[in-house]
Amino acid sequence: MARRFLAVIAVVLALSQAASAKPWLDEKFNTDGTVRTGYDASGQQVVTLSLDQRSGAGFNSDEQYLYGKFSIQMKLIPGNSAGTVSCFYLSSGDGDGHDEIDMEFMGNSSGPGHPVVLNTNVWVNGDGKKEHQFNLWFDPAADFHTYTIIWNPENILFKVDDLFIRSFKRFDGIPYTSSKPMRLHATLWDGSFWATEKGKVPIDWSNAPFNVLYRNYYANACVSGGACHSGSDGWMNRQLDGAEWGTVKWAERNYMSYNYCEDGYRFPQGFPAECSRY
């Protein structure tokens, strides 16, 4: 009887936590495609994006931002996710001269030797050939992991859990994304033409629908045309210290699979100017 009573109490507590949890998706985003919401045992809202042959899915911020710190926890597609692309990114739009800051997870074939690749990229005035790609050193489908973008006037920082893996710095005379407000997006789509082994492995639709879970969204940012939220001083001037540069070098040394600053085939006339300044 006591065990049954405790079980009932636990269910009541879980339901009350869910009812009181902040529904960040409905408050801050509009959606496309198949997007489902629920709550986990701790009361956090969990958003599921689904991809099938009819459509991908995504959520897009109502507000536009000019600088900020953005993070979310994601649990990626288990098993054979080849051809899929799961994203967390900022973009000023779809025009030829748009700016964008990307964290894109490119699906893989299941089994050893096929890591999920995280593609980080920065677009400035429509030029997006600035990729650093990393083979993730954990299974991103086994549990939630935290992915963070910090964007300020000095640099753009990419972070996985507690580790910084990239800093894209601002240099005099080199274009930098500093004037175009951007919306925050999360999307799941068919990238068969590109995502896995340069498009050699397309989606196996027999495994559809493919689902990616998002939770614990966080943003502290300056709203376009408005004020910065309190606490912006924690990220507005944020740059990496010596130890944090050490984690970037660790990631580059052990897990980087592509660096645009080493792709002579792509840049036969010479590497972009920032490549010589790091």
TrEMBL record:
Record bears the keyword Cell membrane: no
Active site residues per record: E100, E104
Sugar-bearing residue positions: N108
Any one GO molecular-function label of the UniProt entry: hydrolase activity, hydrolyzing O-glycosyl compounds
GO CC terms of this entry: apoplast
GO biological process: one example: cell wall organization
Principal localisation: secreted
Keywords: Apoplast, Cell wall, Cell wall biogenesis/degradation, Disulfide bond, Glycosidase, Hydrolase, Secreted, Signal, Transferase
EC number assigned by the record: 2.4.1.207
Signal peptide: 1-21
Domain GH16: 15-214
Keyword Signal: yes
PTM text: Contains at least one intrachain disulfide bond essential for its enzymatic activity.
Superkingdom, natural source: Eukaryota
Function (record text): Catalyzes xyloglucan endohydrolysis (XEH) and/or endotransglycosylation (XET). Cleaves and religates xyloglucan polymers, an essential constituent of the primary cell wall, and thereby participates in cell wall construction of growing tissues.
Name of this protein: Xyloglucan endotransglucosylase/hydrolase
Species name: Aegilops tauschii subsp. strangulata
Lineage summary: Eukaryota, Viridiplantae, Streptophyta, Embryophyta, Tracheophyta
